[in-house]
Amino acid sequence: MRRNAIACLLAAALLALPYAAQAEDYVIIVNKDNGNAVDKDFAAKAYRGDVKSWAGGGNVACIALPDGNPVRAAFDKGALDKSPSQTRALWAQMAFSGKAVPPKIVDSEAEVIKAVSDNKNAIGYVSAGAAVASVKVVK
Fold this sequence. Notes:
The chain has a single domain, classed as Periplasmic binding protein-like II (D-Maltodextrin-Binding Protein, domain 2, 3-Layer(aba) Sandwich), CATH 3.40.190. Helix content is 47%, strand content 15%. It has helices at 2-22, 40-48, 70-80, 84-97, 109-118; strands at 26-31, 61-64, 104-105, 122-127, 135-137.
């Protein structure tokens, strides 16, 4: 009996490892011409609607991946400390209250990179292994 309990605990710990590793398996990106100081804290504030403009001028344009995307789940958990459903509820509240404009949702990491490279004021996130030569990685 005790051996079964230990085996179950070990299996649970091993199953949790991939999720823990994925929690930070994303990078935050901005346009190459964006000279503002950007870090994980700034990104979290932008995606929560607490920061609406860059210090250097211009409105922050947040780009996000859709629900169900594992990179979205990693970003929501790692940067916002929320699940995707909690983040979606936050964005709905922002839109309803007029407090802020929710992020633009795009279908793929390639579209995030394109949107950020095309807009000096955009910020986004992609997987750590994504090809990001056309943008600046800030985290």
